[in-house]
Design brief:
The protein is mostly helical and 211 residues long. It has one domain. Helices cover 82% and strands 0% of the residues. It contains nine helices and no strands. Helix 5 (58-67) packs antiparallel against helix 6 (69-79), helix 6 runs antiparallel to helix 7 (85-103) and helix 6 (69-79) packs parallel to helix 9 (144-200).
Amino acid sequence: MVEIIKAGGWLMLPIILCSIVAIAIIIERFWTLSAARIAPRYTLGQVWTWIKNNELDAAHLRELKLASPLGQILAAGLVNARHGRATMTVSIEQAASQVVHDLERYLNTLGTIAAITPLLGLLGTVLGMIEVFTQIMVRGSGNTEALAGGISQALITTAAGLSVAIPAYMFHRMFMRRVDSLVLNLEQESIKLVDALHSDRRVQVKEIGTP
């Protein structure tokens, strides 16, 4: 492996660095973008239980906000629930925009890695071919060792760049689809809460402050 990296030339270093960053992002996003962590199924039911039992106070709102991104969105809406449907909806949208931003964290970086690593490999190919033709001009075509070095650099960097770019692109697309699915779920849960609260038009929340 070390010999292959050496044969690929100095451009192997940024390609390897990109691969390390991509692996770290993939592992982190797999952990973070879990439906059970983003939008636990019990969250809305727990909120409704608190409302029905007249237990929704500042402490419960703080607990809800810290529990999950869905809880953060619902808590933002509940704080302004008594001010009407429109105000509650705006509060939910503002909280949701921050949550969506967090869900998409590092995905642009992963997409950039998928885009630039083939270009780094192509640059390595160009430099390798320049080396080959330079050796041909200086020493003629009989120096097979020098020619092999340039060809190795040309082929190895291209293969390395594609080896990083292909999985990075696949995971980027997969995570983007997962974010879209999670956002839709968050939106549906939020709408359920708004509709439920403003069908009764009365919500008793004790000592609500800014969590």
